[in-house]
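> call design_seq(struct)
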């Protein structure tokens, strides 16, 4: 059981099972981030706008990684110019809540049977995150190059097309039972999983936080129509809480 209702002094109080994560993060595809501080000239050699996030093929990812040596900026503390770690906005949020604030958190998703997949699971587990809901699958783990310019602005280029991920029909009530919050990130390739997760969350009484991601992601999928469906289906029921990217706000989208 995830929670039990107890009576104390005539009042009903909920007692949480310490083994059940209070907050769950659903990231269908585990992701490894390659983070590096680079000079501005590199952005002229890669597709997409600076500061955004668009998917790239494995060949493009490898090309960007190979170019980093010529464009990387020296670190003030002499640390490694590039850091490789478990990534993705959901994983970063969950890891931060767990290691930084001691919140009982867990991850739902899938990782590949490769070095990157093992690194993701190990990194999250070391940060105190419950990884029992992660599925190991045959295939590659997603990767992303995170380019940070001299002003601290980030440009993301993820490679997701061939990566393993959890499917909507693989999610179970047991994944959500007893938890209070579910954190997700919006994405076109995740839409089926998002819908399935919100549906089960509603059944289990779990509140949902949905991050609308970058302005490029939202624009690419013609976000108005898709989000209208989500709002009409779930907003009125208090299930969906969204975060609108700042650039979309400025454009009054």
């Amino acid at each position: 059981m995830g929670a039990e209702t107890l009576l104390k002094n005539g009042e009903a109080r909920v007692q949480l099972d310490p083994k059940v994560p209070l907050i769950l993060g659903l990231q269908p595809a585990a992701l490894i981030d390659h983070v590096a501080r680079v000079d501005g000239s590199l952005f002229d050699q890669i597709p997409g706008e600076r500061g955004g996030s668009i998917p790239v093929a494995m060949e493009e990812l490898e090309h960007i990684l190979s170019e980093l040596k010529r464009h990387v900026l020296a670190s003030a503390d002499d640390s490694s110019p590039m850091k490789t770690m478990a990534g993705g906005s959901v994983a970063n949020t969950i890891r931060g809540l767990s290691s930084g604030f001691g919140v009982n958190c867990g991850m739902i998703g899938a990782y590949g049977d490769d070095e990157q997949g093992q690194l993701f699971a190990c990194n999250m587990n070391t940060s105190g995150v419950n990884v029992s809901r992660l599925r190991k699958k045959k295939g590659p783990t997603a990767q992303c190059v995170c380019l940070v310019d001299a002003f601290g602005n980030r440009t993301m280029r993820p490679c997701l097309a061939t990566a393993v991920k959890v499917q909507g029909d693989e999610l179970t009530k047991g994944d959500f039972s007893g938890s209070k919050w579910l954190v997700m990130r919006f994405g076109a390739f995740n839409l089926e999983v998002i819908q399935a997760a919100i549906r089960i969350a509603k059944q289990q009484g779990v509140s949902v936080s949905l991050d609308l991601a970058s302005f490029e992601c939202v624009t690419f999928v013609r976000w108005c129509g898709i989000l209208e469906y989500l709002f009409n289906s779930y907003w009125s029921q208090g299930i969906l809480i969204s975060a609108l990217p700042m650039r979309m706000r400025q454009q009054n989208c």
